[in-house]
Amino acid sequence: MNLKEKSLAVSELYKELDAEMQAFIGQSGLGCLPGCGFCCSKPTVQASILEFLPFAFHIVEQGKGEEALLRLEEAGSTKPCILYKSFSEDGESGFCSAYAQRGLICRVFGASARKNKQGQREIITCKKIKTQKADAFQVAQQAVQEGSLEVSSSSGAYSYLYGIDFELAAKTFPVNEALRLAVEHVLTYRYYSGSEEAAPESSF
Q: Which residue of 22, 141, 195, 202 is surrounded by the most CB atoms within 10 Å?
């Protein structure tokens, strides 16, 4: 697969995951708290290049690739994801400005499960949801362990990414670095494939 085909394969995975996760959230009530950006505000979030290829193609095809690179270089790896827009002083309330193109790490957290040391499936979520939706969390956790509530496997999703391109999926970086590298990969791919960046539609 070329880089564009790999991006499309990632997007297909996201479509399937989104459907599974919406079903899980609808049954469990464990969606993220409205306006919460607690996780997004952490610069320590790690991501791979591959999971952000859909974002990179989207932004480059809009003619905003170079602008995105400048912003990512300015932000560096010690600041929160540049796609996260905070509207609170503590930075913990906000929204994603590229929600449809968000990475895999942004999708699986809160609406997927993994196996613990005892081999039992446990829901991956944050302290805020466990605290503020404690009853719903306990009910959902028990249902997942009993097998009566379906939830996506985080390891399964990452295994699928590895199958698309192990090198681009296996190594992780601070989120802004992953975004920058994804955009650079797409710009290079389009340059050598003869595709020129489109004229900017609006400011990034």
A: 141
Dihedral, CA of residue 6, residue 155, residue 132 and residue 24, to nearest 10:
70
Model confidence over 108-149: pLDDT tens digits? Answer: 887 889 988 888 899 988 889 999 999 999 999 999 999 999
Which candidate, 106, 122, 117, 42, places its Cα nearest to that of 130?
A: 122
Residue 126's pLDDT is what? Answer: 87
Q: Which of these, 168, 199, 138, lies nearest to 53 by C-alpha position?
A: 168
Q: Which helix (H) or strand (E) holds 174?
A: strand 172-174
Whether residue 15 has pLDDT greater than 80: yes
| Residue that has been written with the tokens 């039992």 in this structure | 120
Closest CA to 101 of 61, 67, 51: 51
Cβ-contact 109, 39 below 8 angstroms: yes
Tokens of 100: 């449809």
Number of Cβ atoms within 10 Å of the Cβ of 75: 19
- Per-residue pLDDT for 203 more than 70? no
* 82-85, long-range: CB < 8 A, 24+ apart: 82/176, 82/179, 83/55, 83/179, 84/37, 84/40, 84/41
